[in-house]
Amino acid sequence: MAQQRTQLWAAEADIDEDIDLNLAIGTYAQNDYEEASLQQPIADATLQAMQAHLSQQNAFAQIPDAVKAFIVHFHQAVLDNNLAEITIAYESGWNKFTEKFYAKTEWPEAELIAPLVNDDPIFLILYRELYYRHVYSRLQPNIDDRFHSFENSCELFNYLLNSDGPVQLELPEQWLWDIIDEFIYQYQVFCSWRSKVKSKTEDELVMLAEGGPQVWSSYSVLNVLYSLMQKSKINEYIAAQREGKSAEEIAEIVGEYGQRPLYRQLGYFSIVGLLRVHVLLGDFTLALKVMDNIELNQKSPFTRVTACHVTTYYYVGFCYIMLRRYPDAIRTFVTILNFIMRMKQYHTRSYQYDQISKTADRMYALFAMCHALSPSRLDDNIANIAKERFGEQYAKMSKGGEDALASFEELFLYACPKFINANSPPYDDPAAIQSLLAPPTPAEASAVDGSSQLDATHRHLQLFLSDVAAQSQIPTLRSFLKLYTSLGAPKLANFLDADEEEMVQEMMVVKQASRSFSRVPGSSSPGLLDGETITTSDLNFVIAENMVHITESTVGRRYAGWFIKNTERTQKILDDLKTMPLPATRAPGQPQQQPQQQQQQGQRESKKVGWAKTA
Amino acid sequence: MAATWIKPSTRPEPIEDLVSGVDRYNPSNVSILEDYLYHQIRSEEYDLLANLAILKLYQFNPDLYNPDVVINILIKALAASPLPDFNLCISLLDERTHPSTLDEPDPLPSTLPQLKTLQSLLFRCRFPAFWATFQSEEFENLRDNYTVEVAGFENAIRQVAIRAVKATFTHITSERLGSYLNLSGNDLTSYVKGLGWTIDSSNGTITVPPNPDNQIEATVVQEAIKLPQLSKVISHAVKA
After folding, report:
1. Which Pfam families does the record match to this protein (chain A) (predicted)?
2. Most CB within 10 Å of its CB: which of A97, A239, B30, B124?
């Protein structure tokens, strides 16, 4: 739909007509959206005027009044750039009405409610964004929905990026993150839907042939994300902040777009968005490289939106796994899982809680896999929870051997992101599609079957499993090595019933597995790809000709903390004692005064407190 | 070491701009990166991120696909074992759904399993098996058409073996080392001398120089008590 971009403020002139609605809006001031406070029905004259213009009068009349009022209120808040109101309407209002009226159906179409908001194109774009998000999450989008939601996203980003100068809109951070998140999510489901050639109807094939390559193409998605980053100059902004530049210098560096919080936040979230898209396309190094400027700690801005926080750690951890950097992955997962555990108590009613729980569960699975591949003495808390949840698989994985592979596969498939292929099947080439659907020769038939198996997830799974298989002998070897300080190679080979040369080579693999690239804490460079080689295992060995020398590093007893704590506690008790008032003493020269009182005093004094001797 | 893995010192400036910026998505830049790959092949250099950029362009623009380039990239990645380079390259190889636009049949489907076998052997440190497989008849195509072009391929693989040996051994017999390096006799001696290692000619044992990986000692991780932790206790004692 090509609508003219009316100036936002020019549309205001029309609003004065709906005076009654404006009066009704004044009552919405509570934190939680209360529709019961709507006192006045919409004025008849306005309603008739609207009905006269619409062809779908029935449909419009079927929209509950409360919803209509909500939409108007929402629109007003957006026009006023009233961030607080927008946040309330967005977070609680929308969800409340969804639960109540639209749990199983779609919200009214944008065209239907357009008169309520005076055809304001910007609000309609935002409304459609919410509308399609609802369709994708609660219902099954059909091909029209997919195409239209793409067009709507393009319009939205076009508006944000290609207007003359930055737009004056202000939206809550949560919404901005959700826009980016949803955009990538719709892209991802479209790609996986698109690659299932066999299940398409004739109409769909035609539509895909015509519009296919442009709709949700990888290039356009990447284009949007990179443009948002570049327009807001977010990387320069972060670098300038780190160098401690003054506010004026920063303002100059980032330009007029970067100064507005809307663009800055969008730029920031785009970086995380890029991290996600690159992982989905299988490019793990680029994903981590994109995050160069963002520091993964609790103070970074992305922690303000919990969903963003969790997503970032999940994808970073997964990249480390595919890069064989298991200690880094473990550290990442432990950090975020601790955070989620602590914040669970505050967030149970958030509508994103389900999604966060699911992601947390997947991260436990990934953590279990990493821990089996690279055992370390780190966080026992998380390790215990993971073992509880995935006990059976974890036991199999730690033992190594044949069963382990099946468990690894199971957990990997459960926890991995939904990878996609960057390109669509060749819908625009009818011959090619036909050959994919109905392969003429047996040779090609097997090729088609093979290629449908080689979908992205399978490919990554195979890579991971081959790594795991290479390390499957390690637990057994390690358990033998633990028992000795020096051991002859032939003897060890005897224990394992293996050929000596094979075994020596396997030892090299063990040694290799105990060295890993890892980010050293305290290193100055912020990049996530950096690191040094560190030892990950307690057990260390070396081969001198045919003799294996083994050492094990142990952790000495930690006593300092306990002693310091108790020393401080004793000192505190002593201090308290010294400042406590002494019991009253008898003056020596007053033996006859109030003998009764003295007796009482004596009785009281006789109840002396016994000071126990401390050992 | 990570710093050179991400950004090799041999990477020229234009390539650096290309790899770090948005221009890497521009299909017309693929020839610059391909030329750089051939430069790497001829001069024994290696740049992982630039090669991954080529594969990514192939991912988005299937008509740019050049199987020889892909095979060369994979061969170069073999020599980086045990780093995950080879796997990262495979991750970017999407399936080919388009009918081939090439003049000749695509050699990748037949060479890819072979390369994967070689990689798995290297990762598992099965060096004698690697050399045996590599020299076998089935791999003749790979040898004659591809690896022969890559300068110093065999030496690069030997480096992989040396890295593994350096970490694991303090002394190693020359037969064993020879089987890992696919060298024997005088070739082996001169190679080892070139590395700076010493051979004890009486019994043929080679001494591996000490490095952080093959010096082991039993360490007890002691707790380091720092002064700030004791500050409260000490200051209290001073006050009293």
Report:
1. Paf67 (PF10255)
2. B124
